[in-house]
Amino acid sequence: MDVDTASDNTSIDDKIDDFCENPTRDALTEGLMSLLKPTVDQLDERIRATRICQIELKQRIESLTEELQRINEALQCPLETDSYVKKLVNAKHKITIVSNILQSTQERLNKIHQAVEKNTVKRKALLDHSSLSSNAPNVTEKVEQEGEREQEGSEW
Known about the structure:
85% of the residues lie in helices and 0% in strands. By secondary structure, the protein is an all-alpha fold. It starts with 11 loop residues before the first helix and ends with a helix. InterPro entries: Snapin, Snapin/Pallidin/Snn1. Keywords: Coiled coil.
């Protein structure tokens, strides 16, 4: 018996047609996207707001540190403000670290957001193109291969 005529072989055209015309899968994809996108957007906005607050706090700590140093110099008496200045410097350092962490988190979030949008556009283009074109299997294979390459490259 020839390998191509075996009863367990199926045509890739059959599989592609099922892939492109599955309303349940499309509804599920759209539902997941509608659930994830607001959460990602909200998280992104909250990270931005936190970073702005931290920048303002850092500036206030710097001005307070300068003011304490001026007071210390103006009094010319041995007050123990050095420990407070050190505490402020330590707080400033911690804020800088947290700000850097938030910045890297926001960059990752932006990459995820871009990947989600890119994937959504590809899926819509694939569905639109497959319904209009007769050579949909070739386009589908190319899009799937590109998606796999992007997922491999975007893993953290």
